[in-house]
């Protein structure tokens, strides 16, 4: 084989090895983009028209993809909403973990996470109609997320109690329940200022009884 032939052969080999990877990455990015757009569109349509009024055809049209393409991703509207809900929950948990990791000592980490959780509850108010809320509440992901959230707060409470900045006469699990129930009221408050006052009152209940 001549030098020029070997050079061409190496070039072709390099090209054929590189293209599949690039193609795979491009296709995967496209799929993620279509999926995210579908989830966002479905959530917006349901918020505007209600759960039972939205169809796959509407979602496909608003997303800008063919209905046949949409069915390759999801079998029905309910499946889309469950995927959207899972993305929301995962995002919230990731945000809380980031807030925790960026805060300072044990007391600051607990306060930061409680405030972030309360603000999430506040900002989520009114996003779902009653029917949609009932539908999403049946999602198994909700139970798993609540368990993870409770574990995170319980761990922070234990750390703060061991550091002597919060009361240690009550089990962390009980205090975690107290925090979650108290801050659940954030969803009905009129402003972020009111939410922060609620967090302050909740934290006051965690102080040592002396």
Any descriptors?
disordered N terminus, 210 residues, 2 domains, 0% strand, mainly alpha, Tetracycline Repressor, domain 2, Arc Repressor Mutant, subunit A
How would you sum up this structure, described in words?
- Helices cover 77% and strands 0% of the residues.
- By secondary structure, the chain is mainly α.
- It has 2 domains: 1-75, Orthogonal Bundle (Arc Repressor Mutant, subunit A), CATH 1.10.10; 77-210, Tetracycline Repressor, domain 2, CATH 1.10.357.10.
- Helix 4 packs parallel to helix 7.
- Mean pLDDT is 83; it is low at 2-19.
What's the arrangement of secondary structure elements?
Elements: H1 3-49, H2 56-63, H3 67-73, H4 77-102, H5 106-123, H6 130-137, H7 140-162, H8 172-183, H9 192-204
What is the gist of this entry?
This protein has nine helices and no strands.
Number of helical segments? 9
CATH homology-level superfamily of the largest domain: Tetracycline Repressor, domain 2
Helix content: over 70%
Q: How many strands, which pairing sense, and closed or not: the largest β-sheet?
A: none
Kindly report the average pLDDT value. 83
SSE sequence, one letter per element: HHHHHHHHH
């Amino acid at each position: 084989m001549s030098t020029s032939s070997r050079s061409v052969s190496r070039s072709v080999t390099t090209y054929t090895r590189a293209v599949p990877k690039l193609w795979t990455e491009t296709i995967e990015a496209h799929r993620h983009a279509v999926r995210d757009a579908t989830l966002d569109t479905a959530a917006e349509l349901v918020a505007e028209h209600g759960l039972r009024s939205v169809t796959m055809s509407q979602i496909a049209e608003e997303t800008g993809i063919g209905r046949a393409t949409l069915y390759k991703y999801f079998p029905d509207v309910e499946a889309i909403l469950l995927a959207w809900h899972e993305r929301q929950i995962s995002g919230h948990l990731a945000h809380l973990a980031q807030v925790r990791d960026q805060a300072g000592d044990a007391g600051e980490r607990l306060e930061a996470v409680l405030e972030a959780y309360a603000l999430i509850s506040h900002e989520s108010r009114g996003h779902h109609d009653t029917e949609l809320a009932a539908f999403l509440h049946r999602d198994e992901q909700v139970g798993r997320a609540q368990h993870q959230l409770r574990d995170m707060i319980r761990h922070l409470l234990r750390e703060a109690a061991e550091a002597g900045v919060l009361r240690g006469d009550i089990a962390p699990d009980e205090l975690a329940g107290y925090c979650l129930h108290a801050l659940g009221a954030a969803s009905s408050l009129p402003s972020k200022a009111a939410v922060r006052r609620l967090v302050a009152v909740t934290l006051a209940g965690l102080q040592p009884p002396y």
